[in-house]
Amino acid sequence: MEAANNAKHVVSISLGSSKRDAGAILELGGRKISIERRGTDGDFDKARQLLERWDGKADAIGLGGTDLYVYAGKKRYTFRESAHLIANVKKTPVLDGSGLKNSLERKLIKSLAASGKVPIKGSKVLMVCGVDRFGMAEALLEAGAEVTFGDLIFGLNVNKPLYSLKALAWWAALLAPLVTKLPVSWFYPMGKDQEVRVVRHPEYFLENDIIAGDFHYIKKFMPDKLPGKTIITNTVTAADRVMLQEAGIKMLITTTPCIQGRSFGTNVMEAMLVALHGGKGPLTADEYLKLLEHYHIESSVEYFGTKE
Length: 308
Description:
By secondary structure, the protein is α/β, with parallel strands linked by helices.
């Protein structure tokens, strides 16, 4: 499908499960934009082929199920596998969501704290992975939350919680040069593995009030019951909502809006904003914030109540 006239077309190619595929047609500011997500079940060759097929056809492409970059302090490291995926994509900008995470998620936490919808100050928060969401991590700490970072616990299966950004940055700087050269599937669920639950260290989920961060980590490692908890995450489908409600979740906050029963990943939203802006690559944090305000794109808050 070629982009035509005033309409925009965004495609997200994901290494995640194809069971989570979805599409939607939106109208924002009088402009139509079609978005679709295509999972490749962890098949890198298929993902690379799809990325190259849509190069020059879509207005922007999202890369899901992996990150292009990880940040350790002010230094940026590139995931070797992810870089190979987009090496031949020359015409269409590819966005992995990292730019939008830093602006949108920081804005969300500040808004929640200011509004009182979620008592951030003094709350105990488990951030399942902080290294790919430094904006959210900083905002939570600035708002007075007591944060436990589970990067080593859930990413590397090492039972060592971290309790400060300084510690997180130290470990990231130590491990990032090695981890970014390894297969992504070694430390991040992708493809069919996203549908397999393995409870890991449930005590960290149970002893915290708020669970925040990547939903695939949350879904894979959470215990069956999380009564009264608040979850701040993204990429949640209608089936995921049922699962969370049955687990007893009190409140679900998705950083991107609920569109036709699901929240799309930040890579989709970032690609959508770049397409609407006519950009040729990632925008600045200020540009993303201005576009979010211009198109009235808001995070989603759902109250489930608590099931006994």
